[in-house]
């Protein structure tokens, strides 16, 4: 069996000008990065009109497990399938972060015969967007410490600096450091730390900006810390936002590549969904919708994380609304939610499946009842799935008025998703009326309680003393009307990753609160969520190599 990278390398790609021309983008609007990658350069002030643009298909999934669900693969395969049934379609997804590529995941550009290509470029450096984001983030960090070194006229309290440097790599050693050592000439000694680039507020701003003017305004509003009198200090006060925007002016343009079947693919931006808002850029999504009648986009993890943030954050800021949704599941993952071990997944086990199915059913309830959007379930089919198991999933979903469709896009590309495409078109053409979980005028605590009760299915929240004080401060400073961004484990509806399936009667503990005033939300940190991951015992980096001909191997 060929690996993902071998399949990708055996595919004959079309010049990116041909892919662009097929959907109506002329050469004058392309900035080429070689033969198969380009940025789309258009008038960013052109008004987006939802009524005159394509229909947006939102892909989400059940709570993830080590068995894998295949959400990105299904997103890409669905776009190919829509093309196969005669629809003008595109896919709009996130860029992979290098850290996880070398950590646990290997490649993150789809899989099998449902990939975006050139997958090696997309997984590693691509068009340099993440480098630009890291540079902008670290420029601000340097200007903060330079301001303090040269007399600190803004009276920044070095104990209250919230801004961290970033690196697009999993490196636990950098989570907590002390810098500015060895004398006055090297700065002011203080406790500090690094985050992974995709956790940076710059990444969130990058993805949530509607145009360059909006980008500059958001950068200007970043709160980097507080004065000794507890007044917020912004990037605008440090006069950093203009130079940061200069570093991002090219990166913010959407990237265009193609799938293995030459369907246009917009791959742009990459915030994680467990520690950020988990969606690709507004600019890429809107650009895709201008040229395609159906655009498949993906929200990270499940309906309780990426999709929730897509609705409550990205939709509020952009005017975008999904026409319908797809939830991806596997029989294997549902059996894991039912409590059996990974070694037992290939055996038929209806009892374990029945115990795990409530996880899927709650995701459907979130989509239908909490957010008011129609949905279809895509079962990513494995050869070991029995007919009885597949029928049990279909039966349970039918009771909630949701159709189940088998997806075989990993093995067969677009032809393995044609039935799914037909159902998606049917639902999308009917449309949905999206509703938000909370009102922005609700108190911060009120928003959190609605989130836990309406989305997670829990009882309520508990606040540490530190979190309670921070919430009170932010409301007093006028930030209480911002949406909340939950940093939570993706493996459970609760903040405890061991509570799989559909836990009940739990509370969510908010241990810390982080203001992202530029991005326009407040991050709520729960459980042991960290903004700088580490590498596993056997990282994927051990298997990735380049042969004597310069061809990358081991990237799967």
Automatic annotation (TrEMBL):
Coiled coil: none annotated. GO terms for biological process: tetrahydrofolate interconversion. ATP binds at residues 65-72. GO terms for molecular function: ATP binding; formate-tetrahydrofolate ligase activity. Its EC number is 6.3.4.3. It comes from Geomicrobium halophilum. The keyword Ligase applies. Pfam families: FTHFS. Belongs to the formate--tetrahydrofolate ligase family. HAMAP family: FTHFS. Pathway: One-carbon metabolism; tetrahydrofolate interconversion. InterPro entries: Formate_THF_ligase, Formate_THF_ligase_CS, P-loop_NTPase. It catalyses: (6S)-5,6,7,8-tetrahydrofolate + formate + ATP = (6R)-10-formyltetrahydrofolate + ADP + phosphate. NCBIfam families: PRK13505.1. This is Formate--tetrahydrofolate ligase. Keywords: ATP-binding, Ligase, Nucleotide-binding, One-carbon metabolism. PROSITE patterns: FTHFS_1, FTHFS_2.
